[in-house]
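Hi all, posting the design record for the shared folder.

TITLE: backbone redesign
STEP: 1 of 1
STRUCTURE INPUT:
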């Protein structure tokens, strides 16, 4: 879906969302995905919107992109993350690590700053988000020492917001923000035990069920970009955060 949203003068941003759902223990695989873009109509009259674009890259393949073409049209692509589990051969094994290298590419023609919002959640058999199950059991390994900066004040166990500290030139990619994903092996030990008794014979039946059986885990990655011109005002307008910009154009959160 897409829509316009007026913002204060100085913001120009393009955003995309790619999401994938992986099911546990013998279930099928489904997906959910959407695309969303916001930009200021007023500011768009002064700056060429066609110059901005952003792509989300998973394991060196573009899975989502949103790039302005012409006459109000956008080139978009929205595929699923973690499709490795859809080949019918690869099974999700708790505790095993799978490749999940996420990067962002500047697919426009002007320098930009980029941001990524990661969301992790569990979905029950009715397709509803289950907040009783911990998103911490979904382990996306974020790379320390990279040029990605986590906004700790706005992040939660379910949502992580990261900013790339350097401006990104057209055609350039960020350093990877992650490399592996796994489901905590403890899900295999979370069980419920029940006892039923036959009233006639007095025999007892003991059953064990996995708490997470039938649940889905969901990983969402949303990437967006904002132009470097008037960086502080543009970032404040688009992302709602205050930043400092050094002489090399690198940003830091206040």
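Okay, here is what came back for every position:
SEQUENCE:
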């Amino acid at each position: 879906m897409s829509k316009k949203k007026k913002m204060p003068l100085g913001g120009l941003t393009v955003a995309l969302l790619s999401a994938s759902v992986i099911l546990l223990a013998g279930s099928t695989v489904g997906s959910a995905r959407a695309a969303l873009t916001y930009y200021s109509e007023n500011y768009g009259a002064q700056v060429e919107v066609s110059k901005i674009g952003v792509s989300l890259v998973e394991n060196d393949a573009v899975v989502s992109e949103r790039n302005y073409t012409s006459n109000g049209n956008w080139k978009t692509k929205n595929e699923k993350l973690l499709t490795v589990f859809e080949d019918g051969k690869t099974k999700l094994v708790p505790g095993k690590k799978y490749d999940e290298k996420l990067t962002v590419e500047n697919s426009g023609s002007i320098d930009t700053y980029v941001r990524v919002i990661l969301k992790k959640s569990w979905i029950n058999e009715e397709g509803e988000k289950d907040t009783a199950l911990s998103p911490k059991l979904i382990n996306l390994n974020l790379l320390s020492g990279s040029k990605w900066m986590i906004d700790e004040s706005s992040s939660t166990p379910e949502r992580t917001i990261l900013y790339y500290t350097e401006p990104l030139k057209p055609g350039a990619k960020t350093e990877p923000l992650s490399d592996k994903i796994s489901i905590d092996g403890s899900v295999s030990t979370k069980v419920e035990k029940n006892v039923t008794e036959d009233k006639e014979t007095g025999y007892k039946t003991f059953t064990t069920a996995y708490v997470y059986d039938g649940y889905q885990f969901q990983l969402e990655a949303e990437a967006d970009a904002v132009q470097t011109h008037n960086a502080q005002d543009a970032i404040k307008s688009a992302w709602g955060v205050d930043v400092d910009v050094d002489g090399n154009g690198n940003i830091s959160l206040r």
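COMMENT: The chain is about 5% helix and 40% strand.
Let me know if anyone wants the other runs.
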